[in-house]
Specification:
Elements lengths: L1 H29 L26 H41 L1 H16 L2 H12 L3 H27 L3 H8 L4 H37 L10 H10 L8 H4 L1 H36 L23 E12 L2 E14 L4 E5 L6 H9 L7 E8 L2 E2 L5 H7 L4 E4 L3 H4 L6 H10 L6 H15 L15 H13 L5 E5 L7 H18 L2 E6 L2 H7 L2 E6 L2 E6 L1 H7 L3 H8 L3 E2 L2 E2 L7
Parallel strand pairs: 3-8, 3-9, 6-7, 7-8
Antiparallel strand pairs: 1-2, 1-4, 4-5, 9-10, 11-12
Helix pairs in contact: 1-2, 1-10, 2-3, 2-5, 2-7, 2-8, 3-5, 4-5, 5-7, 6-7, 7-8, 7-10, 8-10, 14-16, 15-16, 16-17
Bound molecules: adenosine-5'-triphosphate (ATP).
The site of adenosine-5'-triphosphate has 18 residues, from strand 2 and helix 11.
């Protein structure tokens, strides 16, 4: 019902704008007018008696309105465009960069929005002198802040979404992420904003011209009103001829823009909302208590972590210690399972290794990948390493996939992050990979919502492996899948690990799942490693109370642990 109404308003708005555009384009050519010969023009003498009852006057007015429309609409469009450009640049910088840039730019926005609008407009206009460029500048100066603020809040909400995180994990650069993920998600919002800006610009142009701050040589609807006022048309019957028509033109155009803007907003909002629902990241609960650390190590390790601690400072309170002095080594072609309950620090560990901790996380310790200290790499070096040397299979496949891209596009983009392959080579690599993860080529044209949970997870695994990394972190890759699909995914990961000789960290809260795949299991409790060993050793010999608690929590049927029945 609501969208029908919006559609109807949109149609009316489009009709109004199209009519105005035709009038603007064809009017000056079709309506004969020479200001030098006709005294009906307000530029000549709007207040004299000649304005009333002459045969020429209607024609004069129409011709002046059509000529004025060009100036009013041009300034409206250019002013709106200028304010959008400034607003978008500042909004993107503040929202995406965050930190001091965000603080500084947002204070600037606050100051700009609190300044009194009308006096400021007059002061700037008088200071710069009457001209078209002054009008455009005043419009841009007064309107960029609103655009910047709205865009910044949108970017803040989308920059932590699954597809953006997944792209970052694949080593995509900032410009690439902005271009391919963030701007496509925010552009739909910018279109109605632009229409609003055009509406406001047309009104501002009229106000500035009416105040005498427009270009005296370029006639616009506002300047017709200015001359009408200057020659007392408001005090005589002449106002019907020289005030009402430009006023109607302004109202007509502003209403048309508002209707179209309202309709566009209705159209784009549902798309954005569904995107939000698909891409939301689940908030985490807090926990934290010290425990002892188990130590492993070796010079030949594919990945070696020493003394890794991560804290999340809290405003006005005690910081959350998400990881405490973790030491861990993963050997080449080894699968290390990390098991712990919710909030034990598993995802924080994955993010710390990928160097993707979210603010306000503070990290200490060393993380070496094949001998390279990851914490010392520059942003550029990190981007080159992510996806190519170390890849992340993120939690919840649907979050990692862009909902408006097909499987082919998701994989192509993953390749493009690192390599420039020809179309044929890209296609060959994608087909090879799909074969490896067990997806038929006919699904290349499918969108994520058309795939089952297991298939989506296979696509995410393919994306992680597309650039042939030697180390993979799988963060809860089976969460949300039913038991049989879980078993399939684990079998697939194990097969790929063996075929490709991958080293892997497999994170899960589900001990039976980890026991199926891991060569070695590390038990994490409230940010600390409390136990470690092979699956067999932990099942039989571990005396640690937390490990025993996890073992005892495995459901059993007739005395046998349930998932042992399911064969890989
Ligand atoms: N951005 C953050 N700000 C503040 N605290 C955080 C943040 N992210 C995580 N934490 C805290 O760090 C601790 C570890 O969280 P983490 O998400 O790593 O746990 P997890 O084991 O992965 O949990 P789950 O299995 O539920 O994903 C928790 O206490 C959590 O509240």
């Amino acid at each position: 019902m609501r969208s029908n109404r919006a559609g109807a308003m949109g149609l009316v708005g489009l009709f109004m704008l199209a009519a105005m555009l035709l009038f603007t384009l064809l009017g000056p050519a079709l309506i004969p007018y020479d200001p030098a010969e006709r005294s009906g023009s307000p530029l000549a003498a709007p207040g004299n008696g000649h304005l009333l009852g002459t045969n020429d006057i209607g024609q004069d007015i129409l011709a002046e309105l059509a000529t004025g429309a060009r100036v009013s609409l041009t300034i409206g469009l250019v002013g709106a465009l200028a304010s959008m450009l400034i607003g978008v640049a500042i909004g993107v910088l503040a929202g995406y960069r965050g930190g001091w840039a965000d603080t500084l730019l947002m204070r600037l926005v606050d100051v700009s929005l609190t300044l009194p609008f009308l006096p400021l407009m007059i002061v700037i206009g008088v200071f710069l002198g009457p001209s078209m460029s002054t009008q455009i500048l005043v419009i841009a100066i007064l309107m960029w802040a609103k655009v910047a603020r709205e865009l910044r809040s949108q970017i803040l909400s989308v920059r932590t979404r699954g597809p953006v995180q997944a792209a970052r994990a694949m080593g995509a650069g900032d410009l690439y992420i902005l271009r391919r993920h963030i701007l496509p998600m925010t552009v739909p919002l910018m279109i109605p904003q632009f229409i609003q800006a055009v509406t406001a610009s047309i009104l501002m142009e009229s106000s500035l011209s009416f105040l005498g701050l427009g270009d005296p040589l370029a006639k616009s609807w506002g300047s017709i009103l200015f001359y009408a006022n200057a020659r007392s048309a408001f005090l005589t019957d002449a106002w019907i001829w020289w005030v009402v028509p430009p006023g109607l033109c302004i109202v007509w155009t502003v209403l048309g823009c508002s209707f179209v803007g309202y309709w566009l907003e209705e159209r784009v909002s549902p798309r954005l909302q569904s995107y939000t629902a698909l891409g939301k990241i689940t908030p985490k609960k807090t926990a934290g208590r010290p425990a002892s650390a188990a130590r492993t190590g070796g010079e030949s390790a594919a990945l070696r972590i020493d003394g890794l601690s991560v804290r999340y400072p809290k405003a006005g309170g005690e910081a959350v210690a998400a990881l405490r002095d973790i030491d861990l080594a993963v050997h080449p072609a080894e699968i290390v399972g990390i098991v712990g309950e919710s909030g034990s620090g598993k995802t924080t560990m994955a993010s710390a290794i990928m160097q993707m901790l979210k603010p306000p996380a503070a990290r200490t310790g060393s993380i070496r990948l094949g001998g390279d200290e990851l914490t010392a790499l520059s942003d550029r070096e990190l981007r080159a390493a992510r996806g190519r040397r170390i890849a992340l299979i993120p939690q919840a496949a649907m979050n990692a996939l862009n909902p408006v891209w097909t499987v082919r596009k998701q994989l192509t983009e993953a390749i493009r992050c690192h390599r420039k392959l020809s179309r044929a080579d890209t296609q060959a690599r994608i087909e090879q990979l799909l074969g490896q993860v067990g997806i038929e080529p006919r699904y290349l044209a499918a969108y994520p919502h058309e795939l089952s949970g297991g298939m989506r997870q296979r696509v995410v695994i393919a994306m992680a492996l597309v650039n042939e990394p030697s180390f993979v972190i799988a963060d809860e890759p089976t969460t949300g899948l039913d038991v049989l699909v879980q078993v399939e995914i684990i079998a697939l990961l194990k097969k790929l690990q063996q075929e490709l000789g991958l080293s892997m960290i497999f994170i899960s809260h589900d001990l039976p799942v980890v026991k199926r795949i891991a060569d070695r299991i590390v038990i994490l409790d409230r940010g600390s490693v409390v136990d470690e060993g092979t699956p067999g050793h932990l099942s039989v010999h571990s005396g640690h109370p937390y490990t025993r608690k996890l073992m005892d929590a495995i459901p059993s049927i007739g005395g046998r642990q349930m998932r042992q029945e399911v064969q890989l």
